[in-house]
Amino acid sequence: MPxxxxxxxAFKREAVQLAKERGNLSAAARDxxxxxxxxHNWKKQHDQLQRELRRLQxxxxxxxxxxxxxxxxxx
Length: 75
Description:
Layout: H1 9-22, H2 25-32, H3 36-74
Helix pairs in contact: 1-2, 1-3, 2-3
């Protein structure tokens, strides 16, 4: 059974960015010497993390507004 190759996070981010810029995941994977499936999984994980980041940023903005309202009301 072959060992599973590990890639640095920076390489994964750059690979996903390259695939997005080219608009062709298969060609980017081929040029980088990785499988389509590997790059697809990295892209899916990246997209999920971006969605989570946006959600948390929205929640943070709402909480900041709420704190502002309560602070003004108490003064």
